[in-house]
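Narrative summary of target 7.
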Amino acid sequence: MPEKILNVYSENWSEEPFAISRGIEDNFDVVVVELEQNGFKAWGEATPTEHYNESISQTENLIEEFRSQIENGITRSELQRKMPIGAARNAVDCALWDLEAKLAGKRVWELPEISLHLGLETNSSPRNVTTVYSLGVDTPKRMGEIALKNAKRPILKIKLTGDGDLERLIEIRNNAPDSRLVIDANEGWTEEHYKSYVPKFKQLGVEMIEQPFPADNDSILKNLDHPIPVCADESCHDTADLERLIGLYEFINIKLDKTGGLTEALRLQSAAEVKGFQTMIGCMSATSLGIAPAILIAQRAKIIDLDAPLYLFNDRPSPLKYNGSIVFPPSPELWG
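Modeled conformation, tokenized:
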């Protein structure tokens, strides 16, 4: 008999239409991994990303290749060595964390590796965190209207695309004068955009610029002024990427689907801080199950972008609790 029983399946979820520089989406697919052992059931969720050459079938097939090892007790450390980074490993890794906590009769943050990372005292829980609220790419007028509706949110993240971005930011700032602003170009800028926009965006109060250039052409950041800190997203997947990013970026954006799970995300956050980077925790489109493990990384992150469930038409049973832009730690019924 196997030590664990593995179940793998995919789901499609509907969300409000959301545009970035690469296109617009109103639904997304996730892969769910369920693990059962000794009467306990655990799970994890991942969102395969076409931009990283992932698909639902590729993700499910990769997990199936590891079925025997997973069911016969592969450890998280072995998983890191044997399965490549990406969505498949994320779903398995987060399910293993959930199962470990349930088998131990503890919350996941009470496990030694997590509590040490978070610096939590015995019987302490993670704090509530404040997430950005993201505005998808649209016309300046429309983005200004959305900003007005969300002007009481403490921090807005603005998706940009290149031409017309200054007009977008002016409308948003006029309509949300008290909100902090960070921006994300999703690799959509040229060097000319950067040189033209950055001084003006500084005056508009922008606090961080995420991934202005394509990941394979970001070396030009070394020769540009950084009056606003710049964050690596597509340029940073795991700990192995950090050395190359020194001198190019001030922040890195950690996403569990990029790191291949919570285990590597914890390592990446610690290693990045040692090298002088500030950290941001981000997400793909996801349900509350996909976001729940990221709440742990959010405890030490400077900028938190965990707003994906706010755009869903429906969410998981026992979803994450949001009060405006404040996110609460997951319930044991959800994860961990």
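Residues 19 and 136 are 5 Å apart (CA to CA).
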